[in-house]
Amino acid sequence: MELLPRSPGEFGSARYWDRFFRQRGQRPFEWYGAFPELCPVLHKYVRPRDKVLVVGCGNSELSEQMYDVGMCEDIVNIDISDAVIRQMQERSGSKRPKMSYLLMDMLQMDFPDAHFQVVLDKGTLDALLTDEEDATLAKVDQMFAEISRVLQVGGRYLCVSLAQAHVLKKAVEYFSQEGWVVRVHQVAGSGDKQQFVLPVFVYVMTKFRKVSGSAPQILEFCPEEQDKPMRLESTERLVAAVKDRQHYALLCSQLSKTPCREQVSLDLCDKESGKPRYTLHVVDSPSVKTSRDNRFAIFIVPQGRETEWLFGTEEGRKQLAASAGFGRLVTVALHREQHYDGMAGIQAELSGKVMELAPPGLPARQQVPFLSVGGDIGVRTVRHRDTSALSGEYVVEDVKGDGTCYFRRLVFLCNRNVVQSEARLLPPTALPGQKKRRKEKKPSPSEPPATIDKSYLCCEHHKAMVAGLCLLGGPDPLPGALLAVLVVGLGGGSLPLFIHDYFSQARVAVVEIDPSMLEVATRWFGFSQGDRMQVHISDGLDYVAKLATEAPAQYDAVMFDVDSKDLTVGMSCPPPAFVEKPFLQKVKTILKPEGVFVLNLVCRDARLKESVLATLREVFPLLYTRRIEGEVNEILFCQLSPEGQRDPTELGARAQALEGALRQPGRPWDSSYVLAEMLQAVRIL
Hints:
The protein contains 19 helices and 28 strands. The chain is α/β, with parallel strands linked by helices. The chain folds into 3 domains: 218 residues, Rossmann fold, CATH 3.40.50; 108 residues, Rossmann fold; 225 residues, Vaccinia Virus protein VP39 (Rossmann fold, 3-Layer(aba) Sandwich). The strands form 4 sheets. It has a 9-stranded mixed beta sheet with strand order 3-2-1-4-5-7-6-8-9, sandwiched between helices. Strand 21, helix 14 and strand 22 form a beta-alpha-beta unit. Helix 15 packs across helix 16 and helix 16 crosses helix 17. The longest helix has 23 residues. One of its GO terms (molecular function) is methyltransferase activity. Belongs to the methyltransferase superfamily. This is eEF1A lysine and N-terminal methyltransferase.
């Protein structure tokens, strides 16, 4: 039985619809959106005393159901198919005396002006607007003009639609330009009974008198889970909001049918602000043997720990899912701009939503466990937020790490999953010889301490960069040696601070292009300048070029730890200009003959990385590399003389000797910081 048209244009043909309804017989045909799902929206805009016009009624039961539940009785139904009108008159004539069915073309209606309070369209616009040809658009304009003519001021045009982008855009633009208020509702789905994967929407166009001049557009969107509409500033934003909902519905449908081969990521946004509140990653583990109790779980990543390898990388999340022993694990990262009411509050907020991401075959009432580290959601306190002209918006925040330690972090919000700088915080203690006062207030468990632990390097790549200093000098490199060190890239200042504090005769020059970062490092990370520590606000490229001309061969060590602001390049550290051959020649010029150039390289592009390494080999005959486990960082140690080459065992011994010299009585030293381990794993390139 052929029920579909040969071409989309036949949707506007009375002959096609006559044939369609004769072949279908008495069975009602609902394009989409059954009455139980549409009823909550219709109740808002259809009053019992309203006179309602249904255009393109077909043999849908919608009008009959509205009549039977008492929503409205004065309903006029029109259609261009004589067959369906006669069919519907026979079906409803005696049962519903106040409702009528008329053979009429909605493009040329016989009703007087301002005759109805409501015009209802269920799929008719979608059927008519099958393409964007001029003839089709002219028919749609005629349809809209007729609907506008027969509606009273204050009346509502309710259009039930799948909201294809071109259909929604056409309707919104037409009526908003006429001065109407436009609101789009997403209709709540009906679970397994829903016929369409895509969600159904209702456009609500409220007629106002058109005023002269340019009146502001009123465009609103109501997602299915909230009653309060969101105001949007443009048609494009409204279409994008609807498209996001459609993509989410398709994603949920896909996840409910088949395991996902690749990790799926999505944001759930706050109802009020529209800003991301949760970031979800869906991870399937085919190797896990599942039973009824381990098919699905939710893992809440503690606040501030979303950047750690286990939670912040695809490989880490795979390992987490496999070790947790669940077939599908959804990791949930919490955003710093949001407030959360503990694990119980998060569970209540997410329970309904995450079930939409459940694996195939999970029973609807299956209890899903919520997991976390230590059973809590962590602690995050934003200490400072500002915007830099060069680095964009950034935050300084204190977070609780694993165990009882707290850390202070600098994060650029343009790349919020990367910690730019980090320092450990010391617990509050009385100064030596100072007695605690009886009424001294105990620190709150949720209030992090504020003293910076300058002896601790949080970043593994900083530890490796410091260990590289053992390449300097003779057989016994000591911290007391006179050293001249240039560090390009300040951040929070922990790397130059450590070198300054632990190498007592070192003179450290720091180059930082962003003056805001010097203020952040000084105010929030315990950084300070002095006789042996000077910061120069300058572009590192210009500063090194000037030194190469005016003061060559003056530094024992040059260290690059500078990030790139261009996120489109596959190398986030350093900017590409810092590893071009002419500039590396200038770096070589300012190094002493036995000096070392230490570079923090973060490059995900394999070809680009090989090109960088090849350029470095052209300038520096001796090149060592140290990969940082679990991170993309790779530390490169570059020297001018190949005669000074040492194997990893010798480098480890030199690093151990340096560490022994740095561990002086009365000076704090973190037991986890083993310099020898940093250099025993180097490779010679």
